[in-house]
Write a structure and sequence with these properties.
The complex is a heterodimer of chains A (about 240) and B (about 250). Chain A has about 240 residues and is an alpha/beta fold. Chain A is about 35% helix and about 30% strand. Chain A folds into two domains: about 170 residues, 3-Layer(aba) Sandwich (Rossmann fold); about 70 residues, no CATH class. Classes of the chains: A alpha/beta (about 240), B mainly alpha (about 250).
Chain lengths: ~240, ~250
Amino acid sequence: MPASLEFRKVTKTYISSHLGRTRSSRGIVDLEWEVPEGESFGLLGLNGSGKTTTFKLALGLLRPTSGEVRILGRAPADAVAMAEVGFLPELPYFYPFLTPRESLRFYGRLSGLPERELPERIARTLSAVGLSEHGDRRLGEFSKGMVQRVGLAQAVLHDPRLIVLDEPVSGLDPLAIREFRELLGVLRGRGKTLVVSSHSISELEKLCDRVGILKDGRLARVIAQKEWEAAPEGLEGLFVESVR
Amino acid sequence: MRNIAILAWTGWQENLRRRFYLVSLAFAGVFLYMSLILGVLAVEQETRVLFDFGLGFIELMGLAGALYGATTVVLREMETKTVYLVLSRPVGRGEYLVGRFVGLMLSVLCSMALMAAFHLVILKAKGWQGPEPYLACFCGAFLKVLVTASLAMFLAIFSSSVLTAGVISGVIWTLGHFLPEIRFLITHGASRPLLAPLHLLSWVVPDLQLLNLRDRAASLSGPEAGWAWLLCYAALYCAVWLSSAWVLLRRKEF
């Protein structure tokens, strides 16, 4: 199966300089990682372990210091690849004076969706994330959870092959988390590749085929569903064992 | 081109809904109306004073809005991470930059046009019939704002500081009105140590006096240099600074 996401010996070092003093800090180190098409992969790690850096490298928002990143077989930020990617950043922020309907129209058009398809797709996506009744309110009036729902909506609106979600359930109430999980389950069933980072181990357990554990910028371990199902303390036990 | 149009349209839509935008328009309306007092003080030159003051005020309001927008639009979107949702789509960084710039300038043009419409109503009510070519003077003022905003956008990305970019742009806008004097100094007697910085200024600073048609309005039927030349000058200046901003933005990491 072709890989949706490939990291070949990728290292990212952040370099900052202030008043002639240069400091470097590690983002990720020698990351070798591959997500086959159609897989649901979770990234787990403590704060600062390199999850967000990994996603930004995949999307071309950061450039690797060394190594190579491929997304859907192409270089990051390649226009053809990016048209097939949906991304939800951690704590997404939208233009506050636009409504969800207008925002989705904006992002849909940027993703190359034809104008005639937009109204129907927007209505369907708003309904899928439970925002049908709020489609014409300004985003500035929305709660954190509702903004997160709009975030997911913009990530799946254009029916991408690869969906990258950074902390998708942060700020959501239990009911919304359940709805999110159901929606992601539907996408999974349709053969989409999901790459999800989360601090919620139980969510990743329910959603993923494999989970990678990042520790200090390195991929410490990749665990398949069968392994954590067989482990006495489940994924949580394996995670604690890996990061200690 | 499609992405630029989409970004410009949304930027324009967003700006028009800002409370600040509407408040500044209301403030401008009140100020333009209050200028009638100045006109009364000018006795026989009432319409001339109203004409000069109004157009000058419209230009300054346009400049303030454009500088604020040009220095904050990209930096704010980088800070709030809104830019992630745009650049993680098939959108080039150049398209993003130009789209945001065009959106901003459309909003500025709209606000200047609304102020100008109100200004014209006041002038007509006071019996103004020319001979000053209002449209030409207005277009010259907008081109001045346009070229200064392109420089401000470059400076904001270069310095990552709204304040620095705003202040330097303001200084360059002021110097731009003295470019003929700077050129005069270069050819007539500036001391040797001053020559290099003056030469640099004469290349970097836009010749805003060329676009300042309001000052010569009474004797003017259009720009002496011709509209084609003025438009080319403004377009070239914007292209140089926006290209430089794009080079910087391409290297930026988010």
